[in-house]
Amino acid sequence: MKFLCVDCDEQMIFEERQLPGDGTLAAVFRCPACARMTAMLTNPMETQLVSSLGVKVGGRTVPEEPFEGIRSGVASGRDDAFEETAHPDGTQRVTWSVDAIDRLGNVPSFVRGMVKKIYSEYAKERGITDITPEVMDRARTDLGLEGM
Ligand SMILES: [Zn+2]
Hints:
- This protein is an alpha+beta fold.
- It folds into 2 domains: 4-71, no CATH class; 77-143, Orthogonal Bundle (Helicase, Ruva Protein, domain 3).
- The protein has 5 helices and 9 strands; from the N terminus they run E-E-E-E-E-H-E-E-H-E-H-H-E-H.
């Protein structure tokens, strides 16, 4: 994530970050040429998304712990929106280990179905029938999904 000063076409420099503790995140960026300041504010859900994708703000990963409560609070979305159904052509199904499902629980509920589908497709393409955290690690590396 980068901010550019429109007038100067300069990349703005990260100035300060605040985590007020209520799940919101405020970051300030400054243009090195004209000193114009821009602030980025995220609501708790956006902060959670940024933090669970491992996006670095100001060179450091946003700590995850303060958001655990929020995460479980909003994790009530439908997990089965993209649930696998047996294909009519007899394509194999994949099963998820308990640990893998646990890991999936760290993904925000509104993208979980999509992430699950990505891992399922990855497994099927490689003839993997059981998805474990190890398979997820491999998929992330192979597909460039670091942090998911
Ligand atoms: Zn500027």
